[in-house]
Give the backbone structure.
Amino acid sequence: MYEWTEEHQAIIGFVRRFVDTEVRPHIDDLEHNGVPPYDVLRKMYVTFGLKDMAQENFQRQLDRKLGGEPSQERRTSDPAAQMITTIELCRVSPGLVTSLGVSTGLAAGTINKLGTPAQMQRWALDLMTLDKVGAWAITEPDSGSDALGGMRTSAKRDGDEYVLNGQKTWITNGPYADTIVLYAKLDDGSNDDVRNRKVLTFVLDKGMEGLDQSRPMRKMGQHGSPTGDVFLHDVRVGKDRLLGETEEPLGGGRQSAKDNFVAERAGVAAMSLGIIDECLKISIEYAKQRKLWGTAISQFQLVQLKLAQMEVARVNVSNLVFSHIERSLNGAVPTFAEASAMKLYSAQAACQVADDAIQILGGNGYIAEYRVEQLSRDARVLRIYAGTDEMQVVAIAKDLTRP
Amino acid sequence: MNVVVCVKQIPDPAAPQSFDAQYNLDRSGKLILDEADTYGVEMALQLVDKAGSGEVSVVSMGSANDLAGLRNALAMGAAKAVIVSDDALRGTDALGTAKVLAAVIKRDLPDLILCATESSDGYTGTTPVQLAELLGLPSITFAKSVSVEGSTVKVNRQTEAGYDEVTAPLPCVVTVTAGVVEPRYASFKGIMAAKSKPVEILSVADLGLGDETGTKGAREEITAVVAAESRQAGEKYVDEGDGAEKIVAFLESIKVL
Ligand SMILES: Cc1cc2nc3c(=O)[nH]c(=O)nc-3n(C[C@H](O)[C@H](O)[C@H](O)COP(=O)(O)OP(=O)(O)OC[C@H]3O[C@@H](n4cnc5c(N)ncnc54)[C@H](O)[C@@H]3O)c2cc1C
Ligand SMILES: Cc1cc2nc3c(=O)[nH]c(=O)nc-3n(C[C@H](O)[C@H](O)[C@H](O)COP(=O)(O)OP(=O)(O)OC[C@H]3O[C@@H](n4cnc5c(N)ncnc54)[C@H](O)[C@@H]3O)c2cc1C
């Protein structure tokens, strides 16, 4: 696949119209007035029948689970449709995609993968349809890149129950989440090194005793996506909240966190493409119309170089997105290293393109009205979350130099 | 109830336009569904929905090289599409277009035919009433709302002063204004399903038509295409302590105060 099909183009047309009429006019509310992203996302889900599709998708996954088949990765019928909404939303508010992806992808995806049928029905369906908001909490103040080894949040056995204590930070949707998928280290009373202890995955509901969700934090960008802390003080949970209802679920714990990294990293490429495409479009229009020394600035070679480099980035990242779609259609999953390479390149390209766009627009680039400054701030986190640039390098190199 | 909507596929109005020597718009590029026609499609879908049975079909004349516009209407929920596409139609004027559309619609007369009041590119606004005349049907133009009760269509017809309430027996041709209803977004499933909905492509010969269409049949001729006059430079008022009064006087002179 190297271009959108006629149907994809029709989808792009409708989604673009929705974004232009339902998102763009509210961008100030999302960016500056603290309006959470969920209502506009729900509207999009209902408008395009994505809610019904989510329900059917859930049913398929549940049937597979009941039939004893290994739960498949969250593959919808056409991966392109999801990529298209990601790309189109990212032209205007990448934060919307962060919140959507964490809730329907990471939180619901993890429950579907590790959970029992009863747990899937109890939590995942409502997250997939956006009736409820989900968070996926692994990072802690003292363990980000080293999330699994450095994790301190503990789950102590107490009879049939566990008692959870600790803190998670920078949790997307944390302030508003109804359902929180939470990773914690098993404390079985032994003297094993904490680094090597078993990682368990629990599901928590808003309002549980001992669970506190902070207010949204102020941050550089992605204002469309609320981020916060999650605090746990003696939160008591039964086995029914332990995913898989066992300490040894198939593909659970550490493996489940890693599986999510692959999906996240592919998503970042599509997010980057939306940002790149929009910044390039704005830059070309501006460079053609801004006249200095009696000529359009698009005639200056230094500006042309930037435009050309932006186009190179656009071509490369769209090729990555197309090849990812084609692979998914064939049921092929990228390796950890490939997914990391895709994320590393796309995130850096998006940041470079957005920064160049600011430069081409000069003072206007720095002023909010022209929107590239927001996209630049929004793009920056793509090099940090879902694994920092450095961790992508580590993952790729480790794979390349494997003995 | 069955409803036919006449829809036109037009070159994207946002893209630069060019004309040939006969002042025909270049239609060789990408075509989209005329936005003016999306209101008719939505109205038709709502009326059929309300009636509880029947279907919406769309009928078009023009190039079938690109069917994206028709697929759009099918994605919204129309059941099938018919397009008359033929080199012999080059140069067809509005009356010729009406003849072609009438020939298609006559094959299986629906209960109601909807058109836009005018297309976004040709803009003559004459096709629908000519179509009604050729079909021997009543026509109501400028509908701002449409409802069907039994075998009667009730229309609020936009006027300068307000609106007229008009009724006509079905079958009938009605032209709808932009904003009569809010066109829906097609669902992703609808878009995918549109691919397998029937699109019938007809030639002039299929309809038994001949010289009444095309350049030969055209009785109007475009003799020139002239760019709209660019806006005049505005009038400058210099504030010599009486700026506010000058502005008030100006606003009074153009009767906005
Ligand atoms: C907006 C936002 C949303 C987020 N959402 C979520 C969420 O929903 N759920 C969640 O669990 N987490 C979330 N995070 C956390 C995110 O995943 C972490 O910030 C990220 O993993 C990096 O961890 P850290 O911030 O602790 O950086 P650190 O791990 O402290 O890294 C600091 C620096 O050291 C470098 N470094 C670390 N280790 C190495 C090494 N071995 N070699 C070379 N360099 C190294 C890093 O690359 C980085 O430059 C979010 C973060 C942000 C900003
Ligand atoms: C000199 C001349 C040359 C032309 N040459 C060509 C040509 O080469 N190729 C070609 O395809 N057309 C050609 N046309 C036809 C033209 O594009 C219009 O279809 C026709 O004139 C209708 O006029 P309008 O666009 O002003 O429609 P209006 O009367 O403004 O349209 C009102 C409504 O009528 C219906 N309608 C109008 N046209 C169509 C249509 N084509 N199909 C379905 N519904 C329709 C729609 O509901 C539309 O919203 C030519 C017209 C003229 C005058």
